[in-house]
Amino acid sequence: MRIPRTAAAATIPLLLALAACAPAEEKSADPAPTSEAGDPAECAADKVLTDGKLTVATDSPAYEPWFAGNDPSNGKGFESAVAYAVADKLGFAEGDVTWVKVPFNNSYAPGKKKFDFDINQISITAERLEVVDFSEGYYAPTQAIIALNGSKASKVADFDGLETFKLGAQTGTTSLTAIREEIEPTAKPLVFEDTNAAKQALLNGQVDAIVADLPTALYITAVEIEDSTIVGQFAYDDDAVEEFGMLFEKGNALVGCVDAALAELKEDGTLAALEQEWLSDTADVPVLD
Amino acid sequence: MSDTGTPAPAGSAASGQPTAGQPSAWQPSERELARRVVRRTLHRRQLLTASAVTLAVFGSLAFGVTQLPGWERVRETFFSLEHAQESFPAILSGFWVNVKMFLIAEPIILVLGLLVALARQSRSAWLTPLRLVAVGYTDLFRGVPTILLVLLCGFGIPALGLTGVTNDLFFWALVALVLSYGAYVAEVFRAGIESIHPSQWASAQTLGLSRVQAMRHVIVPQAVRRVVPPLLNDFVSLQKDTALVSVIGIFDAVFSARDYGNYHFNYTAMVVVAAFFVALTIPLARFTDRLQRRYAERERAGAR
């Protein structure tokens, strides 16, 4: 019979192709990742993507003050500095750190990652933890509201006063959630691809104010938009403190090593010093409530 | 029947042995009946094989995919029912933005496209500047990627700070789409106009029609009929390109899905959006097919 033979001829390669594409069972059944809190340098050696190299990812463009000059590899900017400090603790020299560009919305895609960890102002949430692993938090940002000098929005003194304005923030961020859940403005907030688009819309008067994390807001008002000001920062209810963490592929054994490194950096004051150096003093920004 | 001694019709039954019994009304012969049985069996067998093969191929594909080690992960990140339900309301309201944009843009694009095509076809020396503008317009706006046009119109024009000009993002995104697609559609119309046989022009002239009259009454009606399918094709494309307006912060269906996904680290919302768009474009595609068939039949005037 002709048909079955053709069919078989069509089916078999399909199945073969599928079988060929199927990755071999991943060998991720390593021992529990968190148990190795010993020396971070020893711990990391056999757990990185490429032997002898630490591959770190971030989005492009890389924004100030988290990075400087859109070049993560210069060690300048808070996150770049933290990445190199962690690398140092893990036993990687400066030259052994490789940076890769990974857009934010690719960072959590299922499948093999092309980085050891991604450092990109990513907030740790319980929901995200179901999909990826995070290191311990390395910075706790608050959210801040930016408006143009002299605009109505810049004169707001308390939280409720913000409700009537047209607000904007970057997509997928906790800044946006802060607008939606804390401020709950009457007009739908505008959502932007990145902070650059949000800044442009603010300049054009397409939004009255934008929300970003405080260090970013400080940088925007100080450097990027001369004529703008920080209206205030958010006071969070109780202890729902938000933290940025490094993002890992689910089940990556390196998390434990990085956590150990971060713990050392916190203890010896390095992290606080880096914060002092790169993230401008945030104390004198008024808290809205 | 009153046939007298008419032999059995020269059909299949008359081929060899005459059938036993009455020859008057035509009866399928034994052999024909046997043939029918064979045909039926063959048909049934083919149907069975086709179904079995289809089932086997798609079934084993589905089975194969679900056996892949990453499937569980893919199912959770792309096909989670819970996330689909949660993201649905935002996507639905975003989709209304896409539909609205499409519905407003479409008629404007049609008019603009036809006008530009006509300007390009003008022959009068007085209209040379107009012709040049039309050529420049199609060259430029067909060349610039639509996404850049959206960015340039959405942020660039309001940045000029013109007084009395709106800085509404929806409006400028709409302008960008109209400019981009107007250029495509103008070319489609031009192709249609140029496809009309010169004899039509000649006939119109012999009837004493001026060039404008010939265009208006003879050429354009025929041309429009011819280009309906490619026009509808462009509109399917436009429907999808309304998603590009998200780059300037218009919260359309695609953007609301991406926003949901980026926040929750789950891509299911994008599958939901895809379903929305498919649901919108498939009826339009079928409609295009039908129109195309109808025009083809009419043009051939029964000469199949």
Automatic annotation (TrEMBL), chain A:
The keyword Thylakoid does not apply. Keywords: Signal. Residues 1-24 form the signal peptide. Residues 53-281 form the Solute-binding protein family 3/N-terminal domain. The keyword Phosphoprotein does not apply. Gene3D superfamilies: Periplasmic binding protein-like II (3.40.190.10). InterPro entries: Solute-binding_3/MltF_N (IPR001638). Pfam families: SBP_bac_3 (PF00497). PANTHER family: ARGININE-BINDING EXTRACELLULAR PROTEIN ARTP, MEMBRANE-BOUND LYTIC MUREIN TRANSGLYCOSYLASE F. This is Amino acid ABC transporter substrate-binding protein. The lineage of its organism: Bacteria, Bacillati, Actinomycetota, Actinomycetes, Propionibacteriales.
From TrEMBL, chain B:
GO terms for cellular component: ATP-binding cassette (ABC) transporter complex. It is found in: Cell membrane. NCBIfam families: HEQRo_perm_3TM. The keyword Glycoprotein does not apply. The keyword Transport applies. The chain crosses the membrane at residues 47-65, 101-119, 140-163, 264-285. Belongs to the binding-protein-dependent transport system permease family. HisMQ subfamily. Residues 95-288 form the ABC transmembrane type-1 domain. One of its GO terms (molecular function) is transmembrane transporter activity. Keywords: Amino-acid transport, Cell membrane, Membrane, Transmembrane, Transmembrane helix, Transport. Residues 1-22 have a biased composition (Low complexity). It comes from the Bacteria. GO terms for biological process: amino acid transport. This is ABC transporter permease. Residues 1-30 are annotated as: Disordered. InterPro entries: AA_ABC_transptr_permease_3TM, ArtM/GltK/GlnP/TcyL/YhdX-like, MetI-like, MetI-like_sf. It is a multi-pass membrane protein.
